[in-house]
Amino acid sequence: MGIRIPTVFTENDAKRCAGCGEPIEGTPFRVSIMDNVAAETSPSWAERAPLNPGPHQFHVDAAHFRAWAARRGHYLCRLSAVRELMRPVPLPVDPPAWGLCDASHREDHEFEPA
């Protein structure tokens, strides 16, 4: 019909790294924090969930995820890698904290501050 309809794709691109806050070029590395077992009941709308499951977007470098986890006081398991699905483990420390692990090993967790 001769009608030109220009389309802009990158102008409204809002992908930012949760670790450094900079724009992400291309496809972001997404990490979700999901528990192996669902809770007995979901939290009430009046209370806050103990942990935001995500997905959280990062640059491909694992240092961005580690920086994000460190700012939130999370611990990382030395026996795991940073993967798309991380499992939360409540730690008996004061103040309360979460350990994050990819759950791909059979040994006991070895958590250290991110």
Describe this structure in words.
This protein has 114 residues and is mostly beta strands. It is built from 1 helix and 6 strands. The chain has a domain at 29-36 and 52-113. It has one helix at residues 62-71, and strands at 29-33, 56-58, 75-77, 85-91, 97-101, 111-113. It is extended, with a radius of gyration of 18 Å. The chain starts with 28 loop residues before the first strand and ends with a strand. The model has no long low-confidence stretch (mean pLDDT 86).
Topology (elements, then pairings):
Blueprint: E1 29-33, E2 56-58, H1 62-71, E3 75-77, E4 85-91, E5 97-101, E6 111-113
Parallel strand pairs: 1-4, 3-5
Antiparallel strand pairs: 1-2, 3-6, 4-5
N/C terminus separation? 58 Å
Strand runs, count: 6
Identify low-pLDDT runs. Answer: none
Shape: extended
Helix content: under 10%
How would a crystallographer describe the biggest sheet? 6 strands, mixed
Strand content: 15-25%
The largest beta-sheet arranges its strands as 2-1-4-5-3-6
Number of DSSP helices?
1
Order of helices and strands: EEHEEEE
Radius of gyration (CA) equals 18 Å
Structural classification: mainly beta
Average pLDDT, rounded to a whole number, is 86
